[in-house]
Structure formats: structure tokens, C-alpha cells
Amino acid sequence: MNWTDASIEQRRDFLKTASSAFGVAACGAFFIACENTTVKNPDTQNNQITTFTITEDVKLQVLTTINASVFKVVPNFNSGFPILFIRTSESVIKAYSSSCTHQGLVINESLENGRIYCSWHGSEFDPASGNVLQGPALTPLVQFSTTFDPLTNILTLK
């Protein structure tokens, strides 16, 4: 088409079509970017056992303090996504998937007001159980089995 001969209506139609195509491409890019922060189908039944000495593991050293929390990627657990470890008492360290059960987006690494918080949509979870304290999430966080020996500082993830 020769733009000098195009009518105003033809130009408007072209701009509408071009802007619609751009909008679709921008939305697609947005959803692809969101996909990178989504954790899908955590593997909680993999029959793997991993042990850590929290005082020797650089990432887990923070867990020497009660109410401390930290993300750590553990091979063969949680589909390669981080696990949220939380020390809830002298003898208990909990492990949860880093995926919020509302839409699968990554939860916050640190506790806020004593709760696990998802800043994407405001869900809050109990650090001791993973249960939902405030929605929109309706189901508890996926929990991994752990044992912790405070005398040896050995954490076992199952």
C-alpha cells in the first residue's frame, strides 16, 4: 500500500491491527516472564535422603538461630527449585516448597511478623505447619520431612 494514497480509515485500521499485534506480543512476553518464577509439581516422594551439618553449610548457618529462614536448592528435591528451611524451635527445622499454593509463585525467603508470606498476592502461612493463615491460598504449603539433632547440628531432609 502506498501511504500517500491511503485514506484516514485505512491508516487507522493499520494502526489498530499493529497495536493489537504488539499488545498480544507484550502479554505473551509478560506470561513467559511470570513462568520463570513459577514452581510446578514439587517432588515430595522421591525417596532421597540428604543430610547437612547446619553449622558447616554456608547457606544453612543462619538456622543456628530460632525463627531464622533461608532458601536452599537441594538436588533431587522440589524439582530443582529452592526449599524454604525454617528453624521453628530448639529442636525443629521445617522444610517447605518455595511455591505458594495459590498460583505457584515463589514465596518470600524471610518471615514477616512470624509468618511465611507470599508478596505476590498476600497469602500467609504458619511456619510450624505450613497451614494457610490468610488467603487467597486455600491449601497448605508442600512440606518435606525433616529431622534435626540440635546436639550435632545435623539436619536430615527426606
Question: Can you give keywords for this protein?
Answer:
single chain; 158 residues; alpha+beta; Rieske Iron-sulfur Protein; 2 domains; 1 helix; 10 strands; 24% strand; elongated
Please write the CATH class name of the largest domain: Mainly Beta
Please trace the helix and strand order, writing H or E for each element: HEEEEEEEEEE
Tally of DSSP helical segments: 1
Portion of residues in helices?
10-25%
In spatial order, strands of the major sheet run: 2-3-4-8
Number of strands: 10
Folded structure, characterized:
The chain has 1 helix and 10 strands. The chain has a 4-stranded antiparallel β-sheet with strand order 2-3-4-8, with no helix packed on it. The protein has a 3-stranded antiparallel β-sheet with strand order 1-10-9, with no helix packed on it. Helices cover 18% and strands 24% of the residues. It starts with 7 loop residues before the first helix and ends with a strand. By secondary structure, the chain is of the alpha+beta class.
Outline of the structure:
With 158 residues, the chain is of the alpha+beta class.
Q: What is the topology?
A:
Layout: H1 8-35, E1 50-53, E2 69-72, E3 83-89, E4 92-97, E5 116-117, E6 124-125, E7 132-134, E8 143-144, E9 146-149, E10 154-157
Antiparallel strand pairs: 1-10, 2-3, 3-4, 4-8, 5-6, 6-7, 9-10
